[in-house]
Design goal:
The structure is a homotetramer of 362-residue chains. With 362 residues, chain A is α/β, with parallel strands linked by helices. Chain A contains eleven helices and 13 strands. In chain A, strands 3-2-1-6-7-12-13 form a seven-stranded mixed beta sheet, with helices on both faces. A four-stranded parallel beta sheet of chain A has the order 9-10-8-11, sandwiched between helices. A two-stranded antiparallel sheet of chain A has the order 4-5. The longest helix of chain A has 21 residues. Chains A, B, C, D: GO terms for molecular function: 6-phosphofructokinase activity; AMP binding; ATP binding; diphosphate-fructose-6-phosphate 1-phosphotransferase activity; fructose-6-phosphate binding; identical protein binding; metal ion binding; monosaccharide binding.
Chain lengths: 362, 362, 362, 362
């Protein structure tokens, strides 16, 4: 009988997910294994309808497509799932045993779980209960210490840079300040990369609490040098040094100044009021998660996928595939999800930003 | 002595402005004329520094670039310009005589004014005072009755469609409703074209006051047909039939429900509350004005530019170049700016939208 | 019983084919009809395996994709099909009766045939035999007199223009002449549109037999004006005035100078030899047929598709849908395929090319 | 007096050159230095007209543009330059002393030479004569051992992948084999990366002499699996194992089978003849060198540029900037240009290609 492999994708969308699935299905099939995809996270282990047999014909052409053919909607944590009982009350139940049981009953020898730190944490807990799990990291924010890069990030940065390219001409034609808010709740990777590549004047990242005065100074300095427009890139997690900026939706905390439009809108407001410059803000939002993955992300996702299948062959479970320099490695999942990667302020990229005159808000 | 031609660009940014300039400079130079560009609208007729001689070498390569090398920032209406007097008071003065005087003194025989209806109205008033003016229409919204098409529109639609393409994968992967607000304060052209091309389920345009219940019904119908995500495209000027939606910034009118995020955010809120669907909204904003013009817009802009130069040669002033079917024509400016073009609800495009199942909110 | 509609796509590939299929399937289904797609042209009427039931779920998302889900490979003309007999000899047989018979037996009430003039001619012959046929024109070359535009053309032009944009920087950096051969065997539409939009210096089209001396003169004139690079766009069907250029593969005609690389390579060779300029040539080829259709082509294809379904409803057969100004019309197929559309040398577009200084080889 | 820095770009075009110039000009100006650009390689040291002062305003916006504002046309090797004497004979002369002399006379303290191995070799020879030179590597082929990556490569790969994406739909719609020849005379990096990312079935690289029979086998195997089209990516330097393929233009060597169209055309011919499949070939050529650099290449080019300026400050001459893992380093030029980087056949990327079923011709 042929070996049976399960693959699932969990959590947020990232360009390259389909390339991972493509790689797993084609390479595992070539090893003589059968591959099954679980829709909606662990859904395929609860409902047969959410389990789908995948052969190479099924994945033909998906390599270049955004999204995931498996649907990554997280149907919650199986270890503490809210369930409505007969009395209509919500109870938290642990359905992990049932899932593990189904996994074994269906005869899978391995589960490749593609997901962010939440999904990987769940995968690790299943591994501890005996499920042979291999993780594939998925974070568009590139904020995982254990791997040099994650797929999706290059595409997100490209989309953001492309938007900045587009805004340059309109900003310049109208002597405007354009403030663009990009993804990055905890780390400024997308803001930093797209800002440098997109010719930003100012880049605000969570790693550097910003002084609003530095922003005014940079824009004024531009004016002095006959550059009457400025581009500001703001990571959604960027914050002012004096804590003045509070995040969207925190109105209930009793602060008078609630940022309804996010930090980008707040920064734009400040500039507008103080410098009397025509200032517009834009939130890129979900555009950054969509679209066909870049070549870089496709290749990285394919490498992750084939590496995961090789780990499955070698029986190295409870590990996550990772990129170290230019080599594929395996890192224990528990360890991998422990450390987030922040922008290193001493790194060459940050220095490059400063050298070409970009203001980082400090 | 060689004849001297003046060109200016006024008002908002639109992809193709540089192609018009390119066409005017190259074709006028080939007729043996000298071309001068006026920066900042009529600025070049007030300040020599804002007047720039343009030869073909200066415009090499600008054809494919967004924005305008002349800067289109409107420095206000010369017929009623706010000026600060010595006492620090703001007075409204008419500086049109001075501008006309400078125009004549510098020896220009024609002024090609590229602009929206505001700029064209000013151009017409100068024409009435004796300035030989030729207008080139510029409205990214494509809402001018006098011409079949305006440049910039195809690029704006392409940018919006591209965004919709990107959002499909993420909406589908997460069973989400995505609401995208596009340009169109008075007409729904961009929303209609991009919505149809981008595979939207629902398109809301100013020409059709929408019933929020129709939107709920369409999304629910999608669910019934196993399509668990929906894409909603909303023109910024779309309004609910019962007038419930009021526009951003109209809070002073005493309505309790001010839409801080625009109509798109309002629609998203309603869907979220009523259908309990994960719903996200996005405002494309200035992205739609930026970027390299599409082939269609480049060609149209070049045709407008050369046609304007031909009108100048023929001495047909106070007219605007226009596209009628596939021919260039000339329309009196006064007449041209009088009629806005709304989406014709009986047109083939609207019928196409309905035929393929798109809900138009009615 | 529900009415059954057949759709087929024939001949060469064109971006927008899938959008036509999308429009036909969704709009016909909404009328309560069943839609079937015939793979490989009329293949579905010969082999049940090549007939596929299409419901809206099947066409979800194909609107933005190039190619055709039905496969357009022409399996030959059913009216004179080469068939190998038992003796191994090739015989020409007429299998049209069999196809018509199957069409009727399966109970189809209408066949929407999407194709070029070859496919439409066959469709017309079937119509004459009694098959209720509606044609949808498909020619990437835009060379059909009966319709203002065909889908695929705008995408092809965009791809060619994009290539020209890319070549500018490298041509300029190296003081090179770049010769780009684009599609257009009989008409110069793609060359003309992409050449104007892409900033070409010289455009050679079949409608204007070119003088090689005019090409040399333009390149030399560029040098005089300090422009040390030139871009030449050549339609594959362009020919020298003195008939010196003969087409690829016509070596058997006894000419010594056979163009192995096509007319573009020939032109490049002449320039290289005569002007001693570093000259490179490139054939864009099939790139022009691929990729996601532009917004313009998507919209046009969708309009064609829904218009065809409306004609089916009205029972207007043996007609082809067409675009006249901005309206959908129906033209008798026999008439539609009779006239090819050549570039009108007196048209505004040609004049624009000349006005901005483009050499058209004459 | 302010320190004066010279920058030059030499050899072939690569996306990112302008980003290097941008970084050098902005970061050096911020150190209080004056920057001069030398047009046409060392031309600025021979002719004052080819020397241009560069201030930040001059490089605004060039970061995102392809090509080089300095013109990279190599006007030959100054150490052995062919010069015509009065008698009309060509003599080889060494003008390096004159160049060095001018360099010193103009008071430059450092020369940043951006170029390929040819240009870097010349730079090193100048360094040995006493010119303080810093090298910035430029090879679109990514074939330099001394640095992990070079700019331009990611853009070239993206362009090639984009072309493959476009060809998929047309290949599939017509059951065709498409053979695409990409850059890579000595190494298969572009072919390998674009082929994997672009969903190729077969990738032929110089590092693996190919067996034509393997190609036939893979295409036939595709047919067996109901995939009636195949995509073949061929590096221009790929060769058949038995030496049957000889390069373009080597006809004089007496071989009967000269490949007029390059190895791609040859492979296409073989497939066409042997398998009777409709097979088309395409040479991407200079498209790969053009266009706006990707985010990756922009960032890398900016890092190289600022790193070079930092080396200039530190006085580390006769060295080339390089990327090692994620850090900028300096490598002696002489050493750097000695080793070409071939595709490592044991690398993870090659294994990935094999794992997902790509035939590498062996």
């Amino acid at each position: 009988m042929r070996k049976k492999l399960l693959i699932s994708t969990g959590g947020g969308d990232a360009p390259g997910l389909n390339a991972v699935i493509f790689a797993v299905v084609t390479s595992a099939t070539r090893k003589g294994w059968e591959v099954y995809g679980s829709r909606a996270g662990y859904g395929g282990l609860l409902d047969r309808d959410d389990l789908v047999r995948l052969i190479p014909e099924d994945v033909e052409g998906i390599l270049s497509q955004g999204g995931t053919i498996l649907g990554s909607t997280n149907k919650g944590n199986p270890f503490c799932k809210p369930v409505e009982n007969l009395a209509g009350e919500i109870q938290i139940v642990d359905i992990s045993d049932k899932i593990l049981d189904n996994f074994n009953r269906m005869g899978f020898f391995c589960h490749i779980a593609v997901g962010g730190d939440g999904s990987l944490d769940i995968a690790h807990r299943f591994a501890q209960k005996g499920m042979p799990v291999i993780g594939v990291p998925k974070t568009i924010d590139n904020d995982l210490e254990a791997t040099d890069r994650t797929f999706g990030f290059d595409t997100a940065v490209s989309t953001a840079t492309d938007a900045l390219d587009k805004l340059h001409s309109t900003a310049k034609s109208h002597d405007r300040v354009m403030v663009v808010e990009v993804m990055g709740r905890d780390s400024g990777w997308i803001a930093l990369y797209s800002g440098i590549s997109g010719g930003a004047d100012i880049i605000l990242i969570p790693e550097i609490p910003f002084k609003i005065e530095s922003i005014y100074a940079k824009i004024s300095d531009n004016e002095l040098h006959n550059k009457h427009y400025s581009i500001v890139v703001v990571a959604e997690g960027a914050r002012a040094e004096d804590g003045e900026v509070i995040s969207k939706g925190q109105g209930e905390m009793g602060r008078s100044e609630v940022i309804l439009g996010g930090v980008g809108e707040w920064v734009a407001d400040q500039i507008r009021q103080r410098l009397k410059k025509d200032t517009r803000s834009l939130v890129l939002g979900h555009l950054q998660r969509g679209g066909s993955p870049t070549t870089f992300d496709r290749l990285l996702a394919l490498r992750f996928g084939t590496a995961a299948v090789r780990l499955a062959e070698q029986g190295v479970f409870d590990h996550m595939v990772a990129l170290a320099s230019s080599t594929m490695t395996a890192v224990p999942i528990a360890e991998a999800i422990r450390h987030r990667k922040k922008v290193d302020l001493e790194s060459d990229k940050v220095r490059t930003a400063r050298d070409i005159g970009i203001c980082l808000g400090d």
